[in-house]
Each structure stands twice: as structure tokens, then as C-alpha cells.
Write a sequence for this structure.
């Protein structure tokens, strides 16, 4: 089917990708905008997987102070080149990530960084909650509860602040696919007046 320039323009605005990529995706999706975006997203994720592991020696450190001056965030996100560190989309992602961390208060970047004592406590609580269930399904339920805990408290697994249908990791991989460089959320610190330890 014929794809109009207006359709291609709309896709470009939605994805930030090149004209030819948008046109091809629309043709492949039979003119369906949503399906075309999904196709581009899948291709972007495949590109991201290929780039994982490449060195990330550049990047940005950004800060965010909430308007009430009671919550602040510092975050470091690395990329491969200084050129991408100055890219507008990369900068916006890092700035939005600061706001996400302020709003969702994650414990760590990834689940393997969560304190083992915290994981053990959550596992014990889950076991206590399912002790009356049949023994054969207890372990499965406990693991399900732990997965839910990680999805709520681990940065990469949390629903993205601007799109709760996607995780932070999916947004990051989409950006990697779009820009064509590996990126890595290295670390963050969140400061909250209400959580200040006593002297």
C-alpha cells in the first residue's frame, strides 16, 4: 500500500528515527502506526542486545532537586562517545531518570545489587505468607512475590515514570537501538529529608 509523507512525518515525530526506517516499518505494518512503532521497538531492542558489552567510558552525571527541596538525586549514565553524551535524547533520558528515581525511590540499579539481607527478609516474609498453601506450589509463589518486589524496588525493572507499560530497562534499550551506542546506568544516590538518619 502507498504510505503518505504525512504518515512518515507522524512516525518520525513519534520515534525520532529516520524517514526511510519509518517508511519501511509502515510498509511492513500495512500502514498501521501502532504496529509500525512496535516493529521499530523490537528492532531497536535487537540492536541494543548486540551493543551490550561495548565499553562505555563517556556519559553524564545529572542532578535533580524536587521543588520542595526535600528530595534530591544524583545519577551517572555512561555511553560510548562524548558525541552521544551531548545528544539531546540521551540528555533528556538522564534528566528524566533523575525524576524517576526521585519519584520511585529504587534500592539499586539491578537486582543483583540489592543487599542479600534485604532479599532474605523479603523471602522470609513471602514464605510466612504462603505457609498454608500446598507445599508443591509454595516455592513458585515465593519466587513470584520476590519478582514483584524486584519490579517495584529495582530501577531497571520499575515501570518508567512517563510510560508505565515499559520498564526503565526497555526505555534504555530502546534508546540504545535508536542512537546506536551502548549505554549503562552506573549508579545513583537519592537524598530524602524524611529518611535522614539520626546523628
Amino acid at each position: 500500500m502507498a504510505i503518505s509523507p504525512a504518515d512518515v512525518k507522524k512516525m518520525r515525530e513519534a520515534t525520532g528515527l529516520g524517514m526511510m526506517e519509518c517508511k519501511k516499518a509502515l510498509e511492513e505494518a500495512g500502514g498501521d502506526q501502532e504496529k509500525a512503532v512496535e516493529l521499530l521497538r523490537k528492532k531497536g531492542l535487537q540492536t541494543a542486545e548486540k551493543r551490550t558489552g561495548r565499553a562505555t567510558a563517556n556519559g553524564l552525571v545529572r542532578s535533580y532537586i524536587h521543588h520542595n527541596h526535600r528530595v534530591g538525586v544524583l545519577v551517572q549514565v555512561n555511553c560510548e562517545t562524548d558525541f552521544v553524551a551531548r545528544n539531546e535524547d540521551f540528555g533528556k533520558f538522564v534528566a528524566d531518570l533523575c525524576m524517576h528515581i526521585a519519584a520511585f525511590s529504587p534500592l539499586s540499579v539491578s537486582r543483583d545489587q540489592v543487599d542479600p539481607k534485604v532479599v532474605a527478609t523479603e523471602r522470609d516474609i513471602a514464605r510466612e505468607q504462603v505457609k498454608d498453601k500446598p507445599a508443591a506450589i509454595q516455592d513458585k509463589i515465593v519466587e513470584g512475590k520476590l519478582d514483584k518486589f524486584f519490579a517495584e524496588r529495582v530501577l531497571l525493572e520499575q515501570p518508567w515514570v512517563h510510560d508505565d507499560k515499559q520498564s526503565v530497562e526497555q526505555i534504555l534499550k530502546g534508546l540504545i537501538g535508536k542512537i546506536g551506542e551502548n549505554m549503562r546506568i552506573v549508579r545513583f544516590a537519592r537524598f530524602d529529608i524524611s529518611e535522614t538518619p539520626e546523628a
